[in-house]
């Protein structure tokens, strides 16, 4: 399955009314789920921040995979909180199916807060960083 096919499948899943989808092909297995009922709302409310939502926009993970803040374990991170980045500049990597995918800044912006943790799994749509457009 190509990245393009994977992105199209995720887009169609997001637009559908489905709450879950499981696909298995040869050596690839994919499972997409969405909170669809009232039961998951209680745990989500317990994890919600107590104060108002912070200002700015959030850059979300475009796919499921392992988050990396730098190009190598001993390299400096692509961005840090307070960094000014240009549109198209790499802000992190997500490894999926043994392929490294660059996540790029959507516009010229100031990185306000980083949410991703190096080496941890991120889900599709998970917040990676909060930024303020310049």
From TrEMBL:
Residues 56-132 form the Lipoyl-binding domain. InterPro entries: AcCoA_biotinCC, Biotin_BS, Biotin_Carboxyl_Carrier/Decarb, Biotin_lipoyl, Single_hybrid_motif. PANTHER family: OXALOACETATE DECARBOXYLASE ALPHA CHAIN (PTHR45266). CDD domains: biotinyl_domain. Pathway: Lipid metabolism; fatty acid biosynthesis. The keyword Cell inner membrane does not apply. Keywords: Biotin, Fatty acid biosynthesis, Fatty acid metabolism, Lipid biosynthesis, Lipid metabolism. This protein is a component of the acetyl coenzyme A carboxylase complex; first, biotin carboxylase catalyzes the carboxylation of the carrier protein and then the transcarboxylase transfers the carboxyl group to form malonyl-CoA. It holds the Pfam family Biotin_lipoyl. This is Biotin carboxyl carrier protein of acetyl-CoA carboxylase.
